[in-house]
Write a structure and sequence with these properties.
Elements (H helix, E strand, L loop, with lengths): L1 E4 L2 E5 L1 E2 L4 H13 L3 E5 L4 E2 L1 E6 L5 E12 L10 E5 L8 H5 L13 E8 L4 E5 L12 E5 H10 L1 E7 L15 E8 L10
Parallel strand pairs: 7-9
Antiparallel strand pairs: 1-2, 3-5, 4-6, 6-7, 7-8, 8-11, 9-10, 10-13, 12-13
Amino acid sequence: MAHELSGRSYAGAYQGVHRRRHHEFIERAVARSGARVVATTGGSEAPLFLSVEEPNGERLGICVYVFLANRKAIRNRPQDEHRLQVRYGDVNDPAWRRRPHPIGYDPLGVDVTLVVGAHLDDDLLIGLDPLLYDPLPIGISIEFKAAELDQAQQAGWHVWERDNISGAKRKAPRAPAGLETVVALSALNRKSCPHH
């Protein structure tokens, strides 16, 4: 099923995703940036759609695919590793994982599409390139180091590259050069944030 917004339909919806805390985290980050959430689709459906009004009165639409990011000890994995988990639906169902999960883009080019991890424990947003993660690779984890997030917390934001290589399921790197850019932003304030 696709969302019907402003007379245009795009972005298949995932129902019953239990993302209330993650979506509220995004909404609070918008408010902390000085903008105002005018409308939201809430926490039980994904992606999250927001209508946002900036301090100058300009409005924009945001389509956000929000996933959990955290630091959880896993046997045989580095102790300084955090991960973002791309999950909707029953990830243990092989048919569900194989099914295409395209990302929605506004055909009119008005709404912005984002793929982010909500790191609730560290008050950070982890941004990924939606073009590289379309279709959504349901059931995967994206790992990154604590040092990268420490820099984001200290400066308010931080950008780095991570290896994006082929694997058993994906025969070619998701990014053509084998590297992808990741950005982490503090959700607490706008200190040192670009464009603010």
